[in-house]
Amino acid sequence: MSTSPTVSALSFSWPDGTPVLRDVSFTVPAGRASLVGANGAGKSTLLRLLAGQLTPTSGSISDVGIAGYVPQRPQARPAAPLAEALGVSEPLNALRRIEAGSTDSADFDAVGEDWDVAERAAATLDGLGLARLGGATALDRPLGTLSGGEATLVAIAGRLLQRPDTLLLDEPTNNLDARARGLLVDALQAFAGSVLVVSHDLELLERMSATVELYRGRVRVFGGPYSHYREVLAAEQAAAEQAVVTARDDLRIQRRQLAENQTKLARRARTARKAEAEKRVPKIVAGLRKNAAEVSAGKLKNLQEDRVDAARDALDAAGENVRDDRAVRISLPEPGPTGRGPIIDLDDPCIGRLRIDAGDRVALAGPNGTGKTTLLRAGLDDATTRGRAVGYVPQDLHFPDESASLIDCVMRPARFAPDSGRGERPDLGAEPAHAALARMLFRGRQSERTVGSLSGGERLRLALALALLPDPAPTLLALDEPTNNLDVPSVELLVEALDDWKGALVIVSHDAEFIRRLRITRRIELSE
Fold first, then answer.
1. Helices 148-161, 178-190: inter-axial angle, 10-degree rounding
2. Rounded Cα distance, 353 and 387, in Å
3. For a FRET experiment, which of 126, 149, 280, 300 has its CA 20 to 30 Å from that of 415?
4. Closest to 211 in 3D by CA, of 34, 378, 58
5. Residue 23 near residue 11, CB atoms below 8 Å
6. Measured between alpha carbons, how far is 313 from 309 in angstroms, rounded to an integer?
7. Per-residue model confidence as pLDDT tens digits over 283-317
8. DSSP H or E stretch at residue 23
9. pLDDT digits over 57-78, tens only?
10. Would you say 524 and 344 are in contact if contact means Cβ atoms under 8 Å apart?
11. Which fold is adopted by the domain 344-400+418-425+454-525?
12. Whole-model pTM?
């Protein structure tokens, strides 16, 4: 039977006291569900809590069973053999020793009932389209020799081999081509346990039977796929915006009435003072009238001020229900001078042909493992050799020092930037470094955050800031699977930013809709 993980009164804060989740309670629906929310909302943190990799500050998690967790960046150890990534190293090595003549009881204990471990691994890989990796010898292959998409599928295959009760996947379609995405969806539909997926892939989100939203530290569960969730949210926001309009109108009315009453009371007070001065009424009567008027005026003033305060509170409450999330608003600098001749003019008999001229907007496409990233990197090396400034954001956003602050990364990019060997990276002063971070929405004290605290989308923003540091700015911007870790609104804003980019652009992406919207001038299709 499918599990339904339950979260009760869960709170979590980082060691520095930064809160992520506050008193969260919900049940993951049985079957397949997506977990959505803005970049930095805590989606990956929640998955890690469910997987048991993090300990809650308070509250509890139950009914997860055996958790199969795949993080955003599964290729953490490129030198690890494929068998280790699949989690079958121990029984596989023990089986090999037994086949070589070992009678050690420890080897038999390690194998247990898993005598067909190699066959099961091969079958699981085959189900995800990786049949060529399924042989016994291939299980010794270093994980770093695989493409990004293949490494992701291998990590998922490894979790499936554990026979988990709950599958927790963080951006599983990153780097996957269309065929691999289809095979992954088929595998998730065949999985008997609960599935909770964090993804920006609209096609995958539409295949989920429920949507779990994480927003401002709170969780809500919506029945139905992502499109249904967006419809419900749109209706709620329309009602919330109308409530703000109504509350604002009421506040305006109450303020006007308060002003009118103050004017009326002031006029009455002047009339009373005039009558007393002219002695039109006895002094004792005037005094009684004055006291009565002051009491009445005070009551009326207090009543109207209370109404203004109530109207202001109602406006504040209505405003809190209107969402104004800040997603990635990227400001790209003007590209540097193009110079003469092509930016890239690579013609390698082993790697391939790639020429990029000023103003080109090129998409490199093809199935996983066809060498798109290899061709891109070789082309960028060619551009560097030609003395051209290029900005490059790699597929795997692995920073050399996860404990480094963002400002340190930007001020000393040669030491802290991913793919730090790409071209010249001189040190930067504090002022231009803060300006570079501000363009990517890291403002004020956010520059003091550590790389390790960033979400996937925030890591992309930092990588973009580093890629665009040279002065003058790069002539060519090259992005390898840039939408991998962005939420859907952030993808929209990245498209807008790249649409405004005046320099040459080279994109590697399996996201067909993303490519379609970038005004690509040339598409280079790689095959096996």
1. 10
2. 19
3. 149
4. 34
5. yes
6. 6
7. 665 555 555 555 566 666 677 777 777 877 777 77
8. strand 19-27
9. 999 999 989 999 988 776 557 7
10. no
11. Rossmann fold (3.40.50)
12. 0.65
